[in-house]
Amino acid sequence: MVAAAAEIVPHLTTALSGPLNIIESTILERQARIESWFRAQWRKTPAPLYASVDLRNAGYKIAPVDTNLFPGGFNNLNPAFESLCIQAVQSALERLEQPVDRVLIIPENHTRNRHYLQNLALLQGIFVKAGFETRVGSLLPGLDRKMEINLDAGATICLEPLQREGANLVVPDFQPELLVLNNDLSSGVPALLEGLDQLIMPPLNLGWDQRLKSVHFGFYRDVAQEFARLLDIDPWLVEPLFRNCGEVDFMKRAGESCLSRNVESLLNAIRKKYDEYGINSDPFVMIKADSGTYGMGVMSVHSPEEVYDLNRKQRTKMATVKEGQKVTKAIIQEGIYTHETWDNPNTVAEPVVYLIDQNVVGGFYRVHPQRATNENLNSPGMYFERLAFEECCNSPDREQSPDAHLNRFYSYGVLARLATLAAAREMQNLG
Amino acid sequence: MVAAAAEIVPHLTTALSGPLNIIESTILERQARIESWFRAQWRKTPAPLYASVDLRNAGYKIAPVDTNLFPGGFNNLNPAFESLCIQAVQSALERLEQPVDRVLIIPENHTRNRHYLQNLALLQGIFVKAGFETRVGSLLPGLDRKMEINLDAGATICLEPLQREGANLVVPDFQPELLVLNNDLSSGVPALLEGLDQLIMPPLNLGWDQRLKSVHFGFYRDVAQEFARLLDIDPWLVEPLFRNCGEVDFMKRAGESCLSRNVESLLNAIRKKYDEYGINSDPFVMIKADSGTYGMGVMSVHSPEEVYDLNRKQRTKMATVKEGQKVTKAIIQEGIYTHETWDNPNTVAEPVVYLIDQNVVGGFYRVHPQRATNENLNSPGMYFERLAFEECCNSPDREQSPDAHLNRFYSYGVLARLATLAAAREMQNLG
Question: Which residues 341-380 in chain B show a CB within 8 A of chain A?
Answer without folding.
Answer: 359
